[in-house]
Design goal:
Elements: E1 3-5, E2 15-18, H1 20-29, E3 37-41, E4 46-55, E5 60-69, E6 77-83, H2 88-101, E7 105-110, H3 121-135, E8 142-143, E9 147-148, H4 149-153, E10 161-165, E11 185-190, H5 198-206, E12 210-212, H6 221-234, E13 242-243
Parallel strand pairs: 1-3, 6-7, 6-11, 7-8, 7-9, 10-11, 10-12
Antiparallel strand pairs: 2-5, 3-4, 4-5, 5-13
Helix pairs in contact: 2-3, 2-6
Length: 244
C-alpha cells in the first residue's frame, strides 16, 4: 500500500486532508483517484487506512477506515548525533538509511575535526520524510539544527544510555554488553572524518558515556553511524501495529 504523510492538524477523528507536496505526489505522481485506499501516517507514530472521498484542485480528503498506533516503530527511541561530513551526499545517505532502520532523531555535530560549518538540516528533514514513507514507518524523525559537540554532551543525562563509538574503545566488544539493561532511550555519538579527538573522547567517558568499539576495522563516519544504529535497533523488535 502506498504511504502518504499528513501532519496531525490535518487529521480529525474520522477524516484526513492531504495538501501541498503530498497532494501533488498523490494526484500527479501516483495518480490516485476517489475511491482508492491509501495509507496515511501522521509522523507521530500512528498510521491510518484511508479511502479517498474527494480530490479537488489543491486538496484531497479521505475517510479514516482504521488506525494503527506505533505502526512499524521500535519501542526504543534512538537519537543519532554525528559529525557533519565534507561530502554532503554521504550525510544524505546516512539520514536516509538510518531513518529506514528506525532512528527517531538526528543531531548534526560540529567537533574539533569537522570541516564544514553549515548543515543542510532542511534537506535532511525532507530526506527523512521520504524515507519514512518508503519504508513504511509512522514516525517522522526530527533533524535538528547544527549543534556544538560540547552542547550535546551536556544532554546525556536525558537518555537512559549514551554510547560513544571510538576506535580506542577496546574494552567493549559488542553492543549487547551495554544494552543488557534494556534502555528505552539511547543517544549514539559518532565522530566526523578522523573521528573524535582524544580530548572529546575523554570528555564522553567522564560524562558517563559507554565506550563501544565497532570492530577492528576503521569505518567511515556514515558506515559507523548506520552500523551502530542497526546494532542498537536489532536488539529491540518493532512494536506490533495495534488497531485502535
Amino acid at each position: 500500500m502506498d504511504y502518504f504523510y499528513a501532519p496531525p492538524e490535518k487529521i480529525s477523528r474520522d477524516s484526513v486532508e492531504i495538501v501541498g507536496e503530498e497532494f501533488a505526489h498523490l494526484v500527479h505522481v501516483m495518480r490516485k483517484k476517489e475511491g482508492d485506499v491509501i495509507r496515511v501516517v501522521d509522523g507521530q507514530g500512528t498510521a491510518y487506512s484511508v479511502t479517498l472521498t474527494s480530490i479537488r484542485k489543491k486538496t484531497a480528503a479521505g475517510k479514516i477506515d482504521s488506525r494503527y498506533s506505533s505502526h512499524n516503530e521500535s519501542e526504543r527511541a534512538v537519537t543519532l548525533a554525528v559529525g557533519i561530513l565534507k561530502n554532503p551526499s554521504k550525510f544524505d545517505f546516512l539520514v536516509e538509511k538510518a531513518t529506514e532502520l528506525g532512528v527517531k532523531k538526528f543531531v548534526p555535530l560540529t567537533t574539533q575535526r569537522t570541516i564544514p560549518h553549515h548543515a543542510k538540516s532542511d534537506r535532511w528533514q525532507k530526506l527523512a520524510l521520504a524515507a519514512m514513507k518508503q519504508c513504511g514507518r509512522s514516525y517522522l524523525p526530527d533533524v535538528e539544527e547544527l549543534q556544538e559537540f560540547s552542547s550535546v554532551l551536556e544532554t546525556v543525562r536525558a537518555y537512559d544510555l549514551t554510547i560513544v563509538c571510538h576506535e580506542s574503545a577496546k574494552e567493549v566488544s559488542t553492543m549487547s554488553d551495554v544494552l543488557h539493561k534494556k534502555p528505552a532511550s539511547i543517544l549514539i555519538l559518532i565522530g566526523p572524518e578522523g573521528g573524535f579527538s582524544e580530548e572529546e573522547f575523554s570528555s564522553c567517558v567522564r560524562a558517563g558515556c559507554a565506550a563501544v568499539s565497532l570492530g577492528p576495522r576503521r569505518l567511515r563516519t556514515e558506515t559507523a553511524a548506520i552500523a551502530a544504529a542497526a546494532l542498537v535497533l536489532q536488539e529491540q523488535r518493532s512494536c506490533s501495529p495495534s488497531n485502535e
